[in-house]
């Protein structure tokens, strides 16, 4: 297995622990067409084999999504575009999108999610309905990721609790046994390790053995993170940011995910069968900032060139 030594030169020395290095190995990162356009060459930032998700925001033309996927794939990365159920009109539209991605950008992976709109634009309201079409299996997709919610989701369970989220997890578990594609739960970001560990253990105890790719917000200004966290419905762990905002000495300092990842990495090292498989970064403070933080903290020190 070829390995890349991919360290960024820096005037500051960061102590990289073996636990963190192991936990960050194989991390993924999310971009949008407009943010990807600001990166001249992803090969200067991401190790070969990094999975790059492409978020599909309402109003983004599918042509822009496919062009971004084609460009990033041409630079040597596995691209995983979002398929937001509520903005896809019907099965014919979905089939056309799949054909465009495969024909023009060699896409073999997809993330299914409901999408960030209140009302469906057509026939689909959730990721389960997309999967149930059978179109991804028919097209031979190698990976099918679905959403996970460590702190619940008020859009899915508007009255509180996790009954609907839990039922959806069971459906996805059953589906994972019917498909040849590899599956994973790509989660919303959270800021506190304890509740993440408790949730992941609960998923496993409920008989769901789909690996978890835990969502983590990358380095960013505190105000930026609080804005995104509220907009995305982040739950109890938002208090970590609010507490930091009350500390004048930290208010103007950028947030970094060091604490939450250090705790998760230590837990993984102590519990090798822990069901969090890898880290998925939301680069809310910028792709370059996030990628450089990952490099400085061991995320690219021993990245397999043929990571899958």
Explained architecture:
The protein has helices at residues 18-24, 33-36, 62-74, 91-105, 127-132, 135-138, 163-176, 193-205, 222-231, 238-245, 248-251, 258-270, 287-296; strands at residues 3-4, 28-31, 51-54, 78-84, 109-113, 143-148, 182-189, 212-217, 276-282, 303-304. With 308 residues, the chain is an alpha/beta fold. It has a single domain (3-304), classed as Alpha-Beta Barrel (TIM Barrel). α3 (62-74) links the parallel β3 and β4. The longest helix has 15 residues, at 91-105. The two termini are 12 Å apart.
Tell how many strands the DSSP assignment holds: 10
Question: What is the distance, rounded to the nearest whole angstrom, between the alpha carbons of the first and last residues?
Answer: 12 Å
**Total domain count:** 1
Major beta sheet, specifics?
8 strands, parallel, barrel
Structural class: alpha/beta
Instruction: Kindly identify the CATH topology.
Output: TIM Barrel
